[in-house]
Amino acid sequence: MTTRPPPDDLAVARLTALEAARNAARLCVAVRAEMPSDPAAMEKAGREPVTIADYGAQAIILHTIVEHFPQDSVLAEEHSAEFDALADRTQQNRVIQHVGAVLGRSVTVDEVRRWLDHGRGVQSERVWAIDPIDGTKGFLRSDQFAVAVALIVSGQPVVSALACPMLPFHPDKPSGPVGLIALAVRSAGAMALPLADGPERPLRVSPVRSLDQCRAIESMEHSDHEFSTRLLAQAGVTRQPLRMDSQAKYAAVADARAEIYIRQSKEQGYAERVWDHAAGALIAEEAGGRVTDLDGKPLDFSTGERMTRNRGVLATAGPPHEALLAAVQALT
Ligand code: AMP
Ligand code: MG
User: Fold this and answer.
1) pLDDT one-digit tens code per residue, 264-302
2) Taking a C-beta distance cutoff of 8 angstroms, is the pair 299, 189 a contact?
3) d(Cα 119, Cα 138) in Å, to the nearest integer?
4) What's residue 8's pLDDT?
5) What integer pLDDT is reported at residue 31 of this predicted model?
6) Is position 38 annotated as part of the catalytic site?
7) Which end of the chain, N or C, is less surrounded by CB atoms within 10 Å?
8) Side-chain-side CA neighbours of residue 308 (13 Å)
């Protein structure tokens, strides 16, 4: 009898994350194409807007994860209870139609509910952190958004896929093909694939060292912009920061489109959510960058949904990192 080699778990996880992010991103693009002027966002009580694309994308991602890793734990932004409370029958039907179109078979509302909640509350060293649409506000503006899928093992992201459907694939061709998937495996590097099919290329951070040449990016909606301005000035970064929604900022650092991503919430004491950072942080690191919080501590992904042991985020190409941490110390 021949013994088969053990499955290469990380290789399967990588393909799972890629397929999940790509299919979810395709659903988002299809939904977006149907809502030119009336984006039909549903308001979660006191929270971010949510659309049928958020539910459809999360259902697709979890459908893929259930198939390959049914025992794993999941931390994901959307819940079936909210899907029932916020989406009326017509909206739920649109979700199942879009999910069915991507999966190539008919899908029921009950299946979508089960996928949305799959893995929640499961105790495991292996946790999938999922943001079906990171930057829903950007999505609604036809601006940047991302589909984020990361596998965290023992508190460390080890595989991640980040689909950025609105990001030009080539940094130097802003009017060229749009849609990039960043993919990373710990200790194996990061790469960019077109959202449509096509050849991949490695992701590598910018070599720029001089602070006055550095380009910074910050959140459009959630950052303390005044803090970033003071911090960058203190560190000697003279260029105006760019603003961008979603974890596409991490992809921008990984792909040498910017040297610095700085994030301090405009809400005092805000603890970041794990699915807003796990995928992007691994990609930036695997492209050769550095990622810490504003105190220079590694991001701690082991505290559940909220990153309660960190304050803000600093992701850089590497060279500017220490100067920015020193500027934080000087200012706070
Ligand atoms: P960004 O576009 O970089 O601001 O990232 C979008 C993410 O910010 C959303 O997915 C939210 O989870 C998260 N978010 C919501 N409110 C806040 C807040 N007050 N401070 C920081 N992040 C937030
Ligand atoms: Mg998010």
Assistant:
1) 999 999 999 999 999 999 999 999 999 999 999 999 999
2) no
3) 28
4) 77
5) 94
6) no
7) N
8) 5
Query: How many Å lie between the centroid of ligand 2 and the Cα of residue 136?
Result: 8
Catalytic residue among 16, 51, 64, 136: 136
pLDDT at 279: 98
For residue 311, the CA-to-ligand 1 centroid distance in Å is 14
pLDDT per position as a tens digit, 92-101: 999 999 999 9
Q: Which residues form ligand 1's pocket by a CB distance below 6 Å?
A: 48, 131, 134-135, 219-222, 245-246, 265, 267, 270, 273, 276
- For residues 91-116, give the mean pLDDT: 97
- Number of other residues whose CB lies within 10 A of the CB of residue 9: 15
Spot the catalytic one: 54, 245, 255, 276: 54
64 catalytic residue (yes or no): no
